[in-house]
């Protein structure tokens, strides 16, 4: 399973659920170098990238943040908004100018609570993304810091 399969909203959610979510989205832009969020901060929003790229990074004591994954067109930026305590587990930075759909986390959580079918679809979508990103983080950190790398041939 690759990143575009797991995080592309167009493939992951049924049409009616995509439409419900897109009705509450608004378009935003970020210049290259803008921080979308910081690890440990309150997760009150999330985004679907329309154009540009966003790097997910992890603080490493005594070093620059390690880039875990780079996200692009139609990919979800942020999943921590869905799970209590709603705190970012990673940081995110625009690595090029970005246009995205932005969603208010409280509004989407309320929609999911009021429509269990939507809630299940969003939870499954986010769960697949979490699993993929945890594996990406593990692989990237092993490549960066383990004596023999991840052992995965590229």
Automatic annotation (TrEMBL):
Pfam families registered for this protein in UniProt: cNMP_binding (PF00027)
SUPFAM superfamilies membership: cAMP-binding domain-like
UniProt xrefs under PROSITE patterns: CNMP_BINDING_3
GO CC, alphabetical: cytosol
GO molecular function: DNA-binding transcription factor activity
Domain Cyclic nucleotide-binding: 9-78
Descriptive protein name: Regulator
Lineage: Bacteria, Bacillati, Actinomycetota, Actinomycetes, Kitasatosporales
């Amino acid at each position: 399973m690759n990143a575009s399969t797991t995080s592309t909203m167009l493939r992951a959610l049924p049409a009616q659920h995509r439409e419900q979510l897109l009705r509450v989205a608004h378009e935003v832009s970020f210049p290259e170098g803008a921080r979308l969020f910081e690890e440990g901060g309150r997760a009150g929003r999330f985004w679907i990238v329309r154009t540009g790229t966003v790097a997910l990074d992890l603080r490493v004591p005594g070093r620059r943040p390690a880039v875990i994954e780079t996200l692009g067109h139609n990919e979800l930026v942020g999943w921590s908004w869905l799970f209590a305590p709603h705190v970012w587990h990673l940081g995110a930075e625009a690595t090029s100018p970005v246009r995205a759909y932005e969603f208010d986390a409280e509004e989407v959580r309320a929609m999911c609570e009021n429509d269990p079918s939507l809630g299940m679809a969003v939870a499954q979508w986010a769960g697949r993304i979490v699993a993929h990103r945890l594996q990406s983080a593990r692989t990237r950190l092993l490549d960066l810091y383990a004596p023999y790398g991840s052992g995965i041939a590229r």
